[in-house]
Amino acid sequence: MNRKATALNWIIGTMLFLLLVGGAVAFAHGYGRNRDESYGPVVEPLPQEVKLALLGVLDAEYVAYAVYDAVISKYGELEPYFTLRGVEVRHIEALKKLLQRYGIGYPAENPHLGAATSSGTLEEAAAMLARKTTERVAIYEEALEKAENYPDIAHVLLILERVSLKAHLPALGFAAKSGGALNSDQMARLGFERGHGPFGMRADGDEYCPMEHGMMWSGRGGERGFSGWMDCHGDD
User: What is the pLDDT of residue 5?
Assistant: First the structure.
């Protein structure tokens, strides 16, 4: 083998060695992992209390969906139940994606469907759902306390809390005082607009989508020290 070939082999071998060493160092320092962002790989497992808190939130969302579904089954596709059931679908999907990211097993199907019942009048059902919403907000708060060191999780929980307080609770409270159901004008007064399907929050208000193209949206405002969060549709 001539000296030129020997030198070339030495250079190639040195480059491969440096790449391997660099990769090992980067991996040791958590290359590609940044929990300050709301997306990207996460390699460390969550503490058990955080796992249980997230599973508790998912179960609460399953219950909410099942009760909305029971009201709709009994009374028909009335507002605000029809729209709020659709919002619950997005809540559940956001939580499932979060649990998948951390490798946490969860019930893929809603265990409360069919078991939840809606008794009494429609007004009473609205009042009951409003109470359940405040209970769910307390569950979010408890989970937030446990997940305060995980900003990506806190982002999602804050959005669920915000939507519960700014969409579910006012709509249900209004419905409880308005015969149990709301018409399109009443929904619009609450900040909902009819698009293609269920009403949605106005784009210039507290529109909500915690997951968009695989990334979590963390909302607007500066709750809990977060600020400068990206807009739901990327036009912050």
Answer: 55
Return d(Cα 75, Cα 70) in angstroms, integer. 9
Q: What is the pLDDT of residues 4-58, one digit of tens each?
A: 555 545 444 544 444 443 443 333 333 333 333 444 454 478 999 999 999 999 9
How far apart CA 125 and CA 68 sit, in angstroms, is 9
> How far apart (Å, rounded) are the C-alpha atoms in residues 168 and 129?
9
What one-character-per-residue DSSP string does 55-102 give? HHHHHHHHHHHHHHHHHHHHH-S-BTHHHHHHHHHHHHHHHHHHHHHT
Query: Up-side HSE of residue 68: CA atoms within 13 Å toward CB?
Result: 26
**Using an 8 Å Cβ cutoff, are 41 and 32 in contact?**
yes
Residue 67 neighbours by CB under 8 Å, 6+ apart: 116, 118, 128, 129, 132
pLDDT tens sequence across 99-154? 999 999 999 999 999 887 777 899 999 999 999 999 999 999 999 999 999 999 99
pLDDT attached to residue 6: 56
Task: Take residue 46 and report the two structure tokens written for it.
Answer: 């969550």
The beta-strand segments (E) located in the chain are: 192-194, 199-201, 211-212, 215-216
Compute how many other C-beta atoms are within 10 angstroms of the C-beta atom of residue 177.
10
> CA 73, CA 171: separation in Å to the nearest integer?
19
